[in-house]
Amino acid sequence: MRSGHRLGRLLGHRLGRQFGWLWGAYGTSALGTWLAFGAFPLIAIQVLHAGPAEVAALSSVGAAVGAAVAVPLGPWVEFRRKRTVLIAMDLVRFAALLTIPTTFALGALTFLQLLLVSIVVAAADITFRAASGSYLKTLLPAEDLLVANARFESTAWTTTIIGPPLGGAATGLLGPVATVVADAVSYLLSALGIRAMGGHEPLPERREAARMRAGDLLDGWRYILADATLRPLFFNTALFNGLVMAAQPLLAVLMLGRLGFAPWQYGLAFAAPSIGGLLGSRLARPLVTRFGQHQVLVVVGALRAIWPIGLAFLGPGTGGLLLVMGVELGLIFCCGVFNPVYATYRLERTATDRVARALSAWAVTTKASTAILTAVWGVLGSLLGPRTAIGLAGMLLLATPLLLPRRAAAHPAEPEPAPNRA
């Protein structure tokens, strides 16, 4: 037994065999996602000869409709065994993505199919995240949630660093559909990993009427908006993520068009700074231990908002490239610290029997706001120019710290249940 404790200290904070399988499954699917980064637009352009409007629809319309499809799934997930839902959503994504190489091989691939697959995958992503957050809260005790979320964050940034270059190489050697196959297989492997976790998960008890009513679809939003600490964080997340993502297409137009950066320089400007996310996620727990959860949430949440406005001053040449990399490094580092702290804070403040609905509502709102703001900023970029629109997004981001919780939560939403370990 003592040797096991020594091994645990050598390997770091141990969270149990079940979490190990869950973490491995997450890493596998995350790597598959980043291997296939940009695959759908590339297939639309190279295989289907789609125009700009159709390519834009793949990301904006697909995400927005997928979010709408996921709305009724939040209440449905709440009263199902979460591990079963996780496996089902992985298999849905596997099956949906596999239709693309199949029809491509048969010469029957269409743009409509790409759009439908993007909708199915977006809805399954939201449902999976809602179920995984709810499952994590019952799997681990409260004191381990930050460690777990920091490991997920670290894994996310690691796969962000290595996935796109490997995916680009695979696309060059094997064609644009190869990475979609890899992404599909990653979801199958994730489902097998979650299945291998074992353990018994009791069926959640439903206190409401047996049949879901139309009003139940809004339960997640009602719960979030009624909580004085979750409410500002909810609006902060939707606005911050939406504005950051809305400026990305305009930045691509500015860098690859007017300023004449090569595609490899554009990729390097965003890939290299991702190391900041890996470093930030490793610092999240030590910072919370020293300064407290609320202090880190507010300070780092404010610091991450100051970086994007620097992109409005982007110029050509090496100086411009270094400016983008510096801004992205600062932004990503702050996000690497903030994200696991915020994810833990959100889980702690949400009652166990409301987690799936709240997380589903959160993800639906974030995806929808990102799609809407991206469309709005596309129009602003056309009217005002990319640089002015990017600067406007940066100025609005400076106001987002006002939407962070102003005081620390006095206590979790409820007494923590016993962890569901095998």
Key traits:
Growth Hormone, Chain: A, globular, mainly alpha, single chain, 0% strand, 17 helices, 422 residues
Report on the structure:
There is one protein chain. With 422 residues, this protein is mainly α. The protein folds into two domains: 16-199, MFS general substrate transporter like domains (Growth Hormone, Chain: A); 218-412, MFS general substrate transporter like domains (Growth Hormone, Chain: A), CATH 1.20.1250. Helix content is 74%, strand content 0%. The model is unreliable at 1-11 and 415-422 (pLDDT under 50). It is a multi-pass membrane protein. It is found in: Cell membrane.
Task: Summarize the entry for a quick read.
This protein is 74% helix and 0% strand. With 422 residues, the chain is mainly alpha-helical.
Number of helices: 17
Give the biggest sheet.
none
- Assigned CATH class of the largest domain: Mainly Alpha
Would you identify the CATH H-level superfamily of the largest domain? MFS general substrate transporter like domains
| Principal-axes shape call | globular
SSE pattern, N- to C-terminal: HHHHHHHHHHHHHHHHH
Number of domains: 2
What integer is the average pLDDT?
86
Number of beta strands: 0
Low-confidence stretches: 1-11, 415-422
End-to-end C-alpha gap: 18 Å
Radius of gyration: 21 Å
Overall SS class: mainly alpha
**CATH topology name of the largest domain:** Growth Hormone, Chain: A
Q: What proportion strand?
A: under 5%
Q: State the helicity in percent bands.
A: over 70%
Q: CATH architecture of the largest domain, please?
A: Up-down Bundle
